[in-house]
Specification:
Layout (H helix, E strand, L loop, with lengths): L5 H13 L2 H7 L3 E2 L10 E12 L7 E12 L5 H14 L10 E15 L4 E13 L1
Parallel strand pairs: 1-2
Antiparallel strand pairs: 2-3, 3-5, 4-5
Helix pairs in contact: 2-3
């Protein structure tokens, strides 16, 4: 197993989300690898935590990356956040991402968690995906 493909995977996921027209129509360019300090837009998308485990097999080294993409909004209700989350899922599931290092075997949706945070003034949906990589 190697963690060597992690940065390339993250860059490809970010690029896929950032350049997707449906996501851009919903959040513009408010898509962050790291949320900037200060005032944030009312609605934004952020790349989040990642867990990686060995997925090597007889053919070579590999890893399974479980990573989170979050939708955060202070809009009332979950409707707009769910529309954005659906667009993200559509953009990522089975996407043919090209990595600068290694090779993507597959990309799947694992789970989502929608909740109110900060005394219910903010809604957040955390989408967890699994990417299987080699190299």
């Amino acid at each position: 197993m190697s963690y060597g493909v992690a940065a390339a995977l993250q860059a490809a996921v970010y690029q896929q989300i950032y350049t997707d027209p449906a996501i851009a129509a919903l959040v513009g360019d408010a898509i962050y690898d790291a949320v900037p300090p200060g005032t944030t837009p009312a609605t934004y998308v952020s790349l989040g935590p990642e867990d990686v485990s060995d997925a090597s097999d007889q053919t070579g080294d590999g890893a399974a990356h479980d990573f989170v993409v979050s939708v955060v909004t202070n809009e009332a209700g979950f409707q707009s956040a769910k529309e954005i989350a659906a667009a993200i899922s559509d953009a990522l599931v089975d996407a043919p991402l090209v990595l600068a290092r290694g090779h993507l075997v597959g990309l799947w949706f694992l789970k989502a968690r929608a909740r109110r945070v900060e005394k219910a003034d903010t809604r957040r949906i955390d989408l967890t995906f699994r990417a299987r990589v080699e190299g």
